[in-house]
């Protein structure tokens, strides 16, 4: 985990203290269920909660024990015994380390996903506000980086909004995938632990019961989880790339906030760089890098091997914490994005109306000109505009194919921006459920 | 696409003929809608259907035209004009190539996914049949490749069944992700095409309407799609790996079908190799390789660029066709898997009961022996078994820590396989909804 | 393999006919060696060459046999027997299928790499020619997409040239990695085939001897090979991205060739899109997608399993053929790139000299102004330029911090483009070995 | 970086203190060169070294400054001023942050690679010692997990040795790729910094001069670097997988060291799991996960953007430190691997000589039996052995095809293990340069 791209709220989920707290709760809830089943004394379960409920775990001490016994869960339980006393011997009956570890991971991932979904809400709120603010702000739509036809800046943002609505659904599905509890004992047969213990712990920890665990929760769930995060990261990259493009010196239709006192470059005082969205682009790559190892983790050998463990020690905190950071940063960038409608208009006019070439083409065909002849005439004029020879409207007015069919008034109407915005309401209604 | 790993039914979805057929239907349905809206003559739309409904498209001719005009959709439309006649000029009004291409891809991917879901049904049926057949067949559960505790072969298969139930849900979600229709014109503003055309085509082609397209359908959908396929591929790999392990010479608990006349090796006549499941392992890697480029396709520039296109020409047919092949092959392997219960029993006994070490440990602690002392005693005996010095039961009977607490009858009971199978019904009920 | 991105020369390496030709040569050379060693009759080896040297293999027939015997090499050998007659029984003595298959793959990959290295030579030649053509063409250097300082277009291309020199070295290393011959028999012990046979075949096929094969050539070699191709693909993507940026409407400093008769868009006649470099971006993603499965192929089980085979049937032809196509396309784009020096100058001036901010800053500090004060003054002026309030030079001349230290002549000198080009010769000498 | 998989020597390369130390040295060496060129006073350069040579940098203070100025290199230089005094103003003249950052990263990666190459030496030494120890220890060679033919354990290890020799060459190439120095100023034109400064710093820091930098060192170098590490990681995975297979309960031909006092499982006292090699498998996945983002980092925009930076803050320390840890762990596992030659022999005999089927087949064909008839006879007998019906030798002796051609003595000779080991010396000579 890279500290500079970690919010404390997210990083804390992966702190040793939080992990041990969750592990304790799982063990203590399991003890409750075992006590109810008469497997262990009720008093033992009560004592465990009484002593452990507010305990602070001594992480260094646990590390010290682990160095000796070379087993992380045994080290944890040994330390719990130091806190709880002899009743701790009733903990973990018939359970395996994986029962605790995998269920703990499920809780951590579920909590991390709750943060991520809140983060997406912030992104959505920012996008929605700016989309309505610029619902009818004209700007040029670009395909292949080349001017195509007019659109509005609000429409651009509405598209990203719709994508982040999908992102939220994907995160909800991802949370559903991994939020399961397994307490099924060695090789998952429940030989020494009653399935009702699992049921109880699942309820208390806010998880579903894993239908079949084989000592471990099957890793296809985690693969699906990290894949979902990767798609969300790619959606961040798409919006970040859009902003980077809009801030290019020659375009400058929007710009990341640049704070007073900020220095864009140590060498060149004039610089204002889109470093936040470039950073988001990099973070997207980092978050995505969890996908392949997560997929490789699925095919564990037989009932389980432990090859997935080191991978998850890396990717679980890294991918969730960095994605949380990236979503927050994105929300802030969108919220504070400096938007230059006048530059949008200037760019839109840069090619003297070339963006209306389709309308002229269609108008000519509707007047009875063959599509081929109309295309050739309009393209011919357009190529002269690209070469800087003349303005598009002038060329059209002088064109022997165009002139007989389209009056100056016709052409003026064909160059009207409003024509392109008549369905903005339709799209906004689809996306925001309102106009 | 590798022909030897392609079923005709799946490959056909990606044939030029099928693609042109879908493209025609999209254009013709759009023409119907435009005719209803009074944008084009009703007679034109009728003629288009009348001439094109049963047409066979001349793929070579379309290629020939494309070489000239260097544009695939224009080539297609030119050929349609050759088939339909002059009314073809009413096709494609206000539409862009992407409207047709992206919607066609959606139809192809949706159809491919229908096949994949049928394939998963075959895998599920095979797994279920074999799971019930071997519901109580004892076998050793292994963690880390090392004998752990007894389980049943049916439980193993039930776990894979549950995983493929998830695979089917993931495919259903993936289908939902990509089954959308976009007919929104240049940069997605509907400037020259009414949104009701999109609505009509979507209904006719069995798709949802894409809320915001920007000339293209946003590629986060496709990234999510290929990610889902990759997870399914990894589930195949897990089951394939299990079978490969089971067939290892020293294990030989199950074996791929080996047909009369088959030669396992040109050089070594004795060979019977798990080549089908090894092949599935490789195919899983191939299908997964679509994930990264699909993620990289998301961040197109502005309203669209065409960098995604070449990628999808590769991964869309390859990933779907090879996954279809792999699922079918897997279903067949499971269906025909040769299972050796007697070898399972032999392996289970190989360590003279070491797999019962946990039960002995728990029994000792229940008799009041401290966990540490009990662990030391049982581990001590076990290590002698690993070194081949004696049988586990004999060592336990002679152990000074064990003997005072456990009679011969106690120990015999602790070595009972049935103890481990008491919750098989519970798990089967969870997985299959029945015992 | 996607036919539209495949040159015949490259695709032919992977045709069945070529493959069978190489397999025959390996077997026949091995027969020669065996005959020299007295293992098989000299006459047999001679007959094999006599009958097979110019044979055309009947691919359909071999497929037919394979469907029966379910073994590709046996099918091939059976067909060879049909061509050669009974002497064919002396072929393949003590060899395994992998001896033939892996050595054949080595030959195919080596030949494909030869093409790729020739392709890079074309890219290098085009880059060098254009670099010298524009050695001193001024253009703005951009960091973060924002104008930074002046550079020359030749310097830009020199950087890409240096990168493709590295690409060629990487391909040379990659070729070295995979060009090995293994004829070591079952599990690689040479039990039934003399190591001198391997030595002879290696020499004849232009390969090195694999030091230790375990029936297969170790797959770390192939992983390194495809990784090298992926890096080359990324270098293509970098140059393609540069060109796409340069062609953006607002930038338009360079443009892909646009042929007479070409249509940029079916709907918008004015469009001229950088579709070739967008395509190269996509192809780079495709080529890179071979890396992960190739890495996953390394850890075969014990002496070999066959999971790598299906993967390589896909990635070996696809990655090499598409990379070949991409390199050729790139060479052509660079060769024919339309370059607009006047637009470069116009863009360079767009910010009224802001690109000289560092020089002003340094000049002020050299006059004794503290770095902080100088930075504040220059940045202050620059921000006004960004806001469109005034021209940079005017602001500087009026600035109370700047004016006391820099005369009009000083400032004019600081705005001199030539200052930035004084080391172009140095860099060209490093890259091209000449000025 | 995951602390439990990090050796201090490796992690220290990436500590802030080390980074700032390298940054200081680069700046101070650059000052020396500038002083020699008369750009700054000689006394300034001397003072910088005098005050900074043994300075300890206050990392918290630098962080504090960075929070204010939002620029890491400016924060560092500000702190250096606090240490060095006013002469620090002569530092960094005409340089950019990237000059320092990229060259620092080059030094860090080069040092990390030196460690990695030392690590590989340890792996090689361990493999060589064990290979010679078991040069002629018979063991079964397995293809597809199925017994194939006899080999020796030394030959297995020799193959891995040869692979790690390649690993070392790949690391050497990778080091060569990234060990370059760039001090070329804004957009890489050397406008304000003499190329001789770069030359001097490169020499002092043990780097080559980067021929063309564009403010940054081109990222194809780093992509090639991380790709090389990924291949090395995969070679670790192959050997780790081999050991995991050998330790499987049913195989048990080798075993990871199991220390006194170690607990294999908290629940099952009998467990001895190959957790080290499973961990290596996971670490290999982690190290490999750097490849894709490193490839995505190559196509920076124009002269540079900063999207690579966050990625490299993650993958550079993580991949190098975890690979270092993995190589050391692997060396230790190989060094201490417990090898069971008697189990190897037992496994070799498990199929009553089936591993000799090829020899019998070849002997029959040499006696004049057609290959088809011989294959059918030997395969027929073998299949009975698989079914447990009889021993292979007995079946052969009773076989009507075999009996007329092979005497008991012939068959005994065909079952001789030594036959398979006659070329072990050849292979050892190739690999180790000695027998």
UniProtKB/TrEMBL annotation, chains A, B, C, D:
Tell me which family the UniProt entry assigns to this protein: Belongs to the lyase 1 family. Adenylosuccinate lyase subfamily.
- What GO annotations for molecular function exist for this entry? (S)-2-(5-amino-1-(5-phospho-D-ribosyl)imidazole-4-carboxamido) succinate lyase (fumarate-forming) activity; N6-(1,2-dicarboxyethyl)AMP AMP-lyase (fumarate-forming) activity
* One GO CC annotation: cytosol
Q: What is its EC number?
A: 4.3.2.2
Protein name, as recorded: Adenylosuccinate lyase
Q: Which SUPFAM superfamilies match?
A: L-aspartase-like
Species:
Phenylobacterium montanum
Q: Which UniProt keywords apply?
A: Lyase, Purine biosynthesis
InterPro entries (alphabetical) = AdenyloSucc_lyase_C (IPR019468), Fumarase/histidase_N (IPR024083), Fumarate_lyase_CS (IPR020557), Fumarate_lyase_fam (IPR000362), Fumarate_lyase_N (IPR022761), L-Aspartase-like (IPR008948), Pur_lyase (IPR004769)
Q: Where in this chain does the record put each Adenylosuccinate lyase C-terminal domain? A: 352-432
Give the CDD domains listed for this entry: Adenylsuccinate_lyase_1 (cd01360)
Asked if the Swiss-Prot or TrEMBL record annotates the protein with the keyword Lyase, the reply is yes
Record SMART domains: ADSL_C
* Phylogenetic placement of the source organism: Bacteria, Pseudomonadati, Pseudomonadota, Alphaproteobacteria, Caulobacterales
Which Gene Ontology BP terms does the record give? 'de novo' AMP biosynthetic process
Catalytic activity as recorded in UniProt: (2S)-2-[5-amino-1-(5-phospho-beta-D-ribosyl)imidazole-4-carboxamido]succinate = 5-amino-1-(5-phospho-beta-D-ribosyl)imidazole-4-carboxamide + fumarate; N(6)-(1,2-dicarboxyethyl)-AMP = fumarate + AMP
Which Pfam family name is an example for this entry?
ADSL_C
Instruction: Describe which pathway this protein belongs to, using the record's wording.
Output: Purine metabolism; AMP biosynthesis via de novo pathway; AMP from IMP: step 2/2; Purine metabolism; IMP biosynthesis via de novo pathway; 5-amino-1-(5-phospho-D-ribosyl)imidazole-4-carboxamide from 5-amino-1-(5-phospho-D-ribosyl)imidazole-4-carboxylate: step 2/2
Q: Does the keyword Cytoplasm apply?
A: no
